[in-house]
Amino acid sequence: MDDYFREFEDRRPPDPLPYSAAREMLWQFLATLTLVVGAWYVIWRWGHSLNPDALWFAIPLVVAETCAYLGLVLFVYNLWRDQPVRVPEAPATVRDIDPDNPDPDRPITVDVLFATYNEEPELVRLGIVDAKAIDYPHPIDIRIHVLDDGKRPEMEAVAQQEGVGYITREGNEGFKAGNLRNAMERTSGDLIVICDADTRPFPTILSRTLGYFRDPKMAWVQTPQWFYDLPEGRKLPGRLGRIFGRMRVGTDPFVNDPQMFYDVIQRRRNRVNAAFCCGAGSIHRREAVMEAALRSFGEAVERRVIAAEEEITLESRERRVSPELLEAIRTEAVTAEVLTPYRFHVSEDIYTSIVLHSDRERGWKSWQHPYVESRMLSPQDLLTWTIQRYKYAGGSLDIMFNDNSLFRRGLTLPQRMMYGATFYSYLGAIWNVVFLFAPAIYLFTGIAPVSAYSNDFFAHVIPFMILLELSMMVGTWGIAGYAAKASYLAFFPVGLRAIWAVARGQKISFPVTPKDRQSGRFLHLVRPQLAVLVLTGAGVLWGLGALAVGGTPHTLTGVVTNALWGLNNCVAMAGIVAAALWQPPATKEAAA
Q1: Based on the domain organization, do 7 and 115 belong to the same domain?
Q2: Are 71 and 110 part of one and the same domain?
Q3: Which of 149-163, 228-242, 468-482 is predicted least confidently?
Q4: pTM, whole model, 2 decimals?
Q5: Are both 354 and 430 inside the same structural domain?
Q6: pLDDT per position as a tens digit, 85-142
Q7: Residue 304: which H helix or E strand, with range?
């Protein structure tokens, strides 16, 4: 284990993307123009371009385009405005973060919690050692605890050797959320730092984040997650490197780099108080989490009591009910609920964020901190990647459909739009299927979804595509965007499985993401992506053959257009297929 990590110890995270008012103005201009031209294109598609002889094909494609355009609107709203990178001054005493505290001059107490289940104890030790090295400019009381749901003697021994707390429990109710709840009942810090088993905090994690809590309404601060153990790639050479800045080639084959999410998407949600908690690397105000739990507990009990009273009324109509039975029904309604600071849900972090943001009475706030303050391990094989992405997608969709969170009372309209953008993105697998297989349908049949691949068609679609690429390049300047788009397209089988599971009412499980590389080849996990590659490639050959032989409805413009479209799809699918075959360098294999 130590040999494995020694290879990466010297790696340092990237700095936050710098703010530029001029670039932001250019982005807003291009984004507005893109939305206007995009709306013009979509309206034209519905009114003037559908192939009346193949509506079975034309309508699904234009519906998919419309759904994608709505997603673009949400994305533009999300990215609309940023703020300069600033770090507030670190608070000196508890008075600075809690003006009403009865002991205002004492040092701030912080509980650093490492949640673990079956991970290698020596992996957790690395995080503990780093947490013990946390630096702070004022006296502070840092208490480190290992929350071991695996109840392992070797994990307890590591905690004892490192001189930190060890907390476990009888059962595993609620999994990670239940583990955190149990720890909160047995700790008392003013603030809580949540770490996964592989989280290794940097010394600055508190000195650069606690200043946000000077605002007494600040409930939590999320720091960017950074994976330091996969290929860093290399910068583009010469003038290309100067022009495209931080863009690299040969990087993480699983496209795990979360900088697009944290440094662009999440950071720009700060403007409407909608940056949500992502678990590891987040710092929470205990008071906020407990108060939100009590409020949710009260609401849940109230709903159960109302349901119980309706049951009592029904029972009373049908037969005489004793006072003892009436009281038993009411008591059951109350005791059936459990106080859960972190909701027992596979996506407990985003769910708890929604609960806190919807509390209008207290007006809790959140903030996405710009600097990386910890490092952790990324999925190192496609099986682990699939487990993690399925959990993210299924958990988010479950919240959207089964908890009606977008309609939760207390959320502002901008907050609803931001959360809606997150949930809506996971529905993209539905229309992405249409985009991926549409070229093959034309290439094999010669049936077009448009009335004609005419000059009028290209006059509408090409300006929109060019503006879209330009605006997204400026809006996410400093981060390579194609890999993220390709990964989003290739995600479609996992997304569809999550959508189908939620639609059937299937419970999304709480699998622990493996921290060790899973052995074997994983081509069986990319069969749908391979199908896109094979069908598109065969379709191109078939279309070219049809043009050569003649006697089919294929046109040269149609074949070229769909071949190029299919090529873009194939490049996206090739990335995930390559990830299924990826093997770490020999030094890693030997260390493992």
Answers
A1: no
A2: no
A3: 228-242
A4: 0.86
A5: no
A6: 999 999 999 999 999 999 999 999 999 999 999 899 999 999 999 999 999 999 999 9
A7: helix 286-318
Cβ contacts of 364 within 8 Å, gap of 6 or more: 217, 218, 219, 288, 292, 356, 357
Judge whether 23 lies within some domain: yes
Token pair of 415 as six digits:
């907050």
CB neighbour burial string for 493-510, b if at least 16 within 10 angstroms, e if fewer: bbbbebbebbeeeeebeb
Alpha-carbon dihedral sign for residues 314, 317, 320, 322: positive
User: Which string of DSSP letters, residue by residue, matches 88-137?
Assistant: PPPP-SGGGT-TT-SSTTSPEEEEEEEEESSS-HHHHHHHHHHHHT---S
Bridge-based pairing of strands 218-222 and 365-368 is parallel
Single residue among 378, 396, 431 that ends a domain in this structure: 378
Residues 17, 127, single domain; the answer is no
Q: Which residue has the tokens 């459990």?
A: 338
**251 and 232 Cβ atoms separated by less than 8 Å:** yes
- For CA atoms 411, 414, 419, 425, the dihedral sign is positive
What token pair was written down for 184?
């909160």
Neighbours of 75 (CB within 10 A): 17
> In the structure encoding, which two tokens stand for residue 82, read together?
């940023």
Question: Can you tell me which residue has the tokens 């849900």?
Answer: 345
Residue-number span of the structural domain to which 363 is assigned? 106-289+340-378
Domain membership of residue 510 (yes or no) is yes
Place of tokens 């493996």: 514
Answer for the pair 224, 262: CB distance below 8 angstroms, yes or no.
Answer: yes
| DSSP label at residue 255 | -
What are the pLDDT digits (tens) for 544-586? 999 999 889 999 999 999 999 999 999 999 988 888 887 765 5
Task: Provide long-range contacts, Cβ within 8 A and 24+ apart, for 450-455.
Answer: 450/45, 450/49, 450/50, 450/51, 450/58, 451/48, 451/49, 451/50, 451/51, 451/52, 453/555, 453/557, 453/558, 453/561
Q: How many domains does the chain have?
A: 2
Instruction: Could you list the beta-strand ranges (E) of 230-370.
Output: 234-235, 248-249, 282-285, 365-368
The answer to whether the beta carbons of residues 201 and 130 sit under 8 Å apart is yes
**241 and 208 Cβ atoms separated by less than 8 Å:** no
**More confident of the two residues 387 and 196:** 196
**Number of residues that make up the chain:** 592
Domain shared by 360 and 463, yes or no: no
Q: How far apart (Å, rounded) are the C-alpha atoms in residues 59 and 388?
A: 34
Residue 156 lies in a domain: yes
Q: Where are the alpha helices (DSSP H) in 446-585?
A: 455-475, 482-490, 492-503, 527-549, 556-581
546/474 same-domain check: yes
Q: Give the end of a domain, one of 349, 378, 407.
A: 378
CA distance 529 to 64: 19
Q: Are residues 184 and 284 in the same domain?
A: yes
Whether residue 92 lies inside any domain: the answer is: no
| Region of residue 272 (left: phi > 0; alpha: psi -120 to 50; beta: else) | alpha
Please give the C-alpha separations between residue 49 and each of 52, 286, 458, 526, in angstroms, as whole numbers: 9, 57, 11, 34
Output the domain CATH number for residue 112.
3.90.550.10
